Every structure is written in C-alpha cells, then in structure tokens.
Amino acid sequence: MANMSTSSVERGLAILELLIENNEGLQISEIARYLALPLSATHRLLQALINAHYVKQEVLSDRYVLTLKLGAMGLRQVSGMNLTEAAQPILDDLARKTGELVRLAVVEDDEMTWVAKAQGATSAIRCDPISGRHVPLHTTGMGKAWLASMPEKEAVARVVATGFEAELLGPNAIRTVAQLRREIRRTREMGFALNEQESELGLSAIAMLVKDPSKANRVVGAVSIGGPTFRLNTEKLMSFAQPLHEAICQIEQIWPARAHTNIRNG
Length: 266
What we know:
The chain is α+β, with helices and mostly antiparallel strands and about 270 residues long. The chain has two domains: about 5-65, Orthogonal Bundle (Arc Repressor Mutant, subunit A); about 80-260, GAF domain (Beta-Lactamase). Helix content is about 45%, strand content about 20%. The strands form two sheets. A five-stranded antiparallel β-sheet has the order 4-3-7-6-5, sandwiched between helices. It has a two-stranded antiparallel sheet with strand order 1-2. α2 (about 30-35) packs across α3, α6 packs across α8 and α7 crosses α8. About 35% of the residues are buried.
C-alpha cells in the first residue's frame, strides 16, 4: 500500500472500518455499494489489503473479512500504556462534549478509587473538587452506582459499617437506611446514579459503572460527569446519560487488555 495515493489510502481505511462493523464479512459487490466505489477499484483496494495481511477472502463464501492483524496492532498499542493513559483520550473527549469535569474511578482492594480526570469547563466557574483518594459510597454518584450493583443487604451493610457521616457530605446527602434503600432502587431503575448536592454544596454529577466484559461484566470502575449545580439541573444531568454511556463502552473495550496492569502504580 506504500505507493497508493492519499485518496486510495482513505478508501482502504474506509473498507477496514466497514469490515469492523460487519465482522461476518461482505461480498465485494456489497463493499462497492456501501462505499460508492467501482468494482474494479474495490477489487484493487481489497487486493492491497490482502497483500498487507489486513483482510482475507473466505474460500466458501467469497466474503472479505478482517484478519487478526488490526486487532493485534491495537492490543500492542494498549499494552504499552497503563489503564489511565489508555482511557485518558476517552475522558478528554467526553469532557469536551459536555463542557464539564469527567472523572474515572476504579474498584481495587474492595474500594473505589479516583485515578484520572479531564476538565471540559472553559468558563471561570468550574468544578474540580479536592477530595481524598477513595470514593465515598452513599454521597457520590460513582459510589451510589456501585452500591446499586450489589445485593441490597450488602450495600446497606457497607454504608452502615462506615457510617453516614462521610468525608464528603452535602446538604442533600443520604442520612438514613430507609433513604439509602430508596436511592439504591431508584439508581437501579435509571441505570445510572445522580449526585445533586449530596457530596458537597453546589456540586451535581451523573455516574455510570464500568464493567469488565471478559469477567461476566464484573464491576471494575465508574465514570462521572460533574459540575456546578446552577449549570447542571436534573434535566441537564440526564442529557449526559447517552454520551457517558458511549464513553464507558469505549473504556470497556480496552479494559480486558489492561486487566493485569497495576492501576495504582500505573
């Protein structure tokens, strides 16, 4: 492919992206139709990709499919990074899209710990709370999302064991077992957790869990989007649910490759 023009390279990349989305493979006529290319040009591009070992043609179906080369290259790139380095571009992109503070926490040694962040706010008024390493469970979106993933009895026991007077405590913080049970059930129903001045006055956030698909979707972390309450009412927080979910899906794709990385020292 070294002698190809820029347009040919772009078309070759378009074929790779198309085959990623259609992992069962496509006929040459389907590829040409999807990309609005002549059959002759499509054939030349596919042959170049085959010669470079990115694509192969199945003998029985004549469909073109990706080889493992592209995936192996991605894994080699990710394996050279620790988890926070690999996830940082995703956090940065989410912060740009939302214009607020994005944070990543991981579950390690039976605790949830903040490990990375990205600031998207460009105005003088921004949220960047100073907090400890460990995420309080019942007063933060991340913590509540994690609690909601547990059996209710276990979740309540964890909070009762540490007490309701958390390190971060806002005016709307949960202060009773009955409130905690209601919030756990609400969070489960929504599929994400909200923090509306629960960790501190004037701060609101939305959070979702990160799960490891290679380990039966075990909870391994959480991502939150937070900012000043005057900018982030409930409706605004809810509007962040979709971009937050999309970012988490991206993080989950790289998580299995980083499963054995020492996150704390990475």
